[in-house]
Amino acid sequence: MAASLMNRAVSRTETIGAFRLSLNLLRNFSSPAAASPATENPSSDPIKAKRRKKKNKNLIEVAQFLPNWGIGYHMAKAHWNGVSYEITKINLYKDGRHGKAWGIVHKDGLRAAEAPKKISGVHKRCWKYIPNLSKTTPASATAAQVQAD
Known about the structure:
Elements: H1 2-30, H2 32-35, H3 59-63, E1 74-77, E2 83-92, E3 99-107, E4 110-111, E5 117-118, E6 127-129, H4 139-148
Antiparallel strand pairs: 1-2, 1-6, 2-3, 3-4, 3-5
């Protein structure tokens, strides 16, 4: 009886060992990094790695990473050329990813209007931050700096 139990135990370990070995073989053959040593040196590989597509964001998602929710910063839709909005006010909905925004239109870096207007298309996923146009300072702050000098 002990011999039969011993034979069963040995056959189970052999089966498990063979199963593990087959899984390791499958893993080695399906892995592209292990299959070709050329991928270890990216300069010799003629095919470049795929780049992730940049995630498009709506205006609120772009503004949330800027100081003070982007108020005073310039943003534009990706397909606009020479037109941007200087954000003056943002009203957020409860979820924090949607809302309304107001801003002053700028064309070619110069103000096109004095009064802020409601920005349309805030929820469309095509907004970008314009870093070239620096944050504008209010007229009172610049006047105080000039008088201090």
